[in-house]
Design brief:
CATH topology: Rossmann fold
Number of domains: 1
Number of strands: 5
Helix content: 25-40%
CATH class: Alpha Beta
Shape: globular
Strand order of the largest sheet: 3-2-1-4-5
């Protein structure tokens, strides 16, 4: 993998890119959680970034498991740092699962961790009118009114255009097997041979 994280959690551009060059208007801000819907959104955002030259900014929001209010009652920096490291690993794993590293053809990629609720982090990050926010949604009704209502909150509060990308649908019998499959199971040559 090229590049590395700086103090602010920024990931360097892919190898062979320069700091200058013409870039299209605004950024493509994509919410990443590691779910199938967010991986589909990440791939869609990367395709658009590669085609338009816009920067790609992947955002993973995280909070302490007991929430910020619970953390304030018993703050523990060591645990907070551990949760932040886990969030960073999840963000890197999403890129590995979607592309095997950095997305091909995208010159400017940033991976950002934000300690906040996901809808609030996405709306605050995509704060320019020429940005485009890309989010994955699940279910027949896009999961807008499902648990947490992240998509619904983003759609009602975003200050830029929002692209919703549905999660891939699989037959019911394959869902359990796919839940246990790994990326190696889908490589050509069948070296991993999943039972899917």
């Amino acid at each position: 993998m090229s590049g590395g994280y700086g103090a602010a959690g920024r990931r360097g551009a892919t190898a062979g890119t320069s700091g200058g060059g013409a870039v299209g208007p605004g950024r493509l801000v994509v919410g990443v959680s590691g779910s199938l819907a967010s991986l589909a959104a990440l791939r869609a955002a990367a395709r658009e970034a590669a085609g338009t030259g816009r920067p790609l900014l992947a955002v993973l929001a995280w909070e302490p498991p007991e929430g910020e209010a619970g953390y304030m009652l018993r703050p523990a920096r060591i645990w907070a740092e551990n949760w932040r490291r886990e969030a960073r690993a999840r963000l890197d794993r999403a890129f590995d699962e979607a592309f095997g590293g950095d997305p091909p053809g995208v010159a400017d990629v940033e991976r950002r961790l934000v300690r906040d609720r996901s809808w609030r982090a996405l709306c605050a990050t995509a704060d320019r009118p020429d940005d485009r926010l890309v989010i994955g949604v699940r279910g027949a009704r896009w999961g807008l009114f499902g648990r947490g209502g992240t998509a619904r909150r983003v759609l009602t509060r975003a200050r830029c255009p929002v692209l919703t990308v549905p999660a891939p649908r699989f037959p019911v019998l394959l869902r359990t097997r796919l839940r246990h499959a790994r990326a190696v199971h889908f490589l050509p040559g069948g070296s991993g041979r999943a039972a899917v």
